[in-house]
Amino acid sequence: MTPEQIYFLTLGLLNLVVALAGSRIKDLDGKPASIHFLTFGFLAFSISWFLYVFEIGIIFKIISAILSLIFIWGIVLFSFNRCEKKVPWLFIIAGFLLHSCLQGYLTYKNDFTAVLHLSGVIIPSIFLIIIYLFFKVKKERNSSDTTLIYVFLIMSIVLISRSIALEISEDFFAITKITSQAIWPAFSVAVGVFSFLSFTEEAQGKLKIESITDSLTGILNRRGFIEELKDKTEEAWVSNQKVTLVMFDLDHFKNINDTHGHDGGDLVLKKCAQQTKIRLREGDLFGRYGGEEFVILLFGVDLRKAQSITERMRVGIEQMNCTYKKNEIKVTASFGLAEMKESDEFVETFIKVDNALYEAKNNGRNRIEVRL
Fold first, then answer.
1. I want to staple 340 with a disulfide (CB 3.0 to 4.6 A). Which of 117, 155, 174, 349 is the partner?
2. Are residues 233 and 207 in the same domain?
């Protein structure tokens, strides 16, 4: 086997491995189309290289060229799906057919120079579309997506440079030819690896959010609140901001569950979370501490101002419309407040707030108590 055949065999195997790896990737959003497009593209690309391991005639060269274009346009389909952008099927189909006809014709004519110039124009243009999708359209771009942008940008520069080098100098072209032979394997592997890593990063991010979010109300759970509290209070104290911890508990919540069932109780919890959230300012923390107990961290306000904000929350809960199975459920809440100081331990402040809440319960409920 000649070195050239070994090169083609290696490229074919590399892309086949990537295609097989893609078959193991799962999209947590239940939208597997993007993965299928990418995997099929890599499978077609691997076959295009495998064909060159053998002595092939012009027909198989044309087939190989078209298979390589399936890889390129498969990446385009993947990118539109991945970035949740409606696929312009007419543009994709027309572009692929036109590209295939031109590539097939020039391959048939054995016009290597024209093939090179065609690739130096069309493929970078396609890659610019992909770069735009990941840079501007994708809602939540992760580090792997950013790496993909650079990969497509570098490959575009290489293809354009090689086309220009062909017209400038044969020596310069020879250098770019060697470079491109090394970059194509790196490019295909990089696209596969970082595309699949993007799904992994996204999945990890979603799992992280789920681990700190209360599934019923959509706000922070106890763990998430305490994690955020530690970071946010340090930032507040660096800027000399006052921090107030608020804890509230829904009054007679057991009676609500007993009367209306757990579905009715869940509705009350969700409604209370919604009513409270809309009365908070941007940057304040809000979480469900457990059961019917909620916690809030207010920044940049003293106890007097914090009490005023809390009063609006209390009234909002008292006046909210909560109807379950045509039955109106009246809800009130008791609140405890305490200032969180840098010199205090977190546990100390939580104890003070809990005592203030206990006092509000003992003093008649549906009220606010403050602990200095």
1. 349
2. no
How far does CA 298 lie from the centroid of its chain?
A: 29
**pLDDT tens per residue across span 143-184:** 999 999 999 999 999 889 888 887 787 666 666 555 556 778
Q: Is 313 helix (H, G, I), strand (E, B) or coil?
A: helix
pLDDT class of 22 with cuts at 50, 70, 90? confident
Residue whose pair of structure tokens reads 């003093």 in the numeric block: 363
Find out whether 357 and 248 touch, Cβ atoms under 8 Å. Answer: yes
Task: Quote the CA–CA distance of 68 and 48 in Å, as a whole number.
Answer: 6
Regarding whether 89 and 36 lie in a shared domain, the answer is yes
Total domains in the chain come to 2
In a domain, 276, yes or no: yes
State yes or no: is 292 an active-site residue.
yes
pTM of the model: 0.74
The CATH number assigned to the domain holding 364 equals 3.30.70.270
Give the residue from 164, 174, 151, 175 showing the smallest Cα distance to 121.
Answer: 164
Any idea which residue has 């109300």 for tokens? Answer: 217
Domain ranges, residue 190: 3-211
193 and 295 part of one domain: no
Among the candidates 162, 189, 211, a domain finishes at 211
Alpha-carbon span 340 to 353, nearest angstrom: 10
Instruction: Note whether 207 and 275 are same-domain residues.
Output: no
| Cα dihedral 190, 195, 200, 205 in deg (nearest 10) | 120
Sequence-distant (6+) residues with CB within 8 A of 205 are: 140, 142
Place of tokens 């312009």: 88
Q: 292, 339, 342, 345: which is the annotated catalytic residue?
A: 292
Give the integer Cα–Cα distance in Å for 362 and 185.
73
Nearest to 162 by CA among 116, 99, 115: 116
> In sequence order, what are the beta bridge partners of 298?
244
| C-alpha distances in Å from residue 138, one per residue of 134, 181, 185, 189 | 5, 31, 26, 22
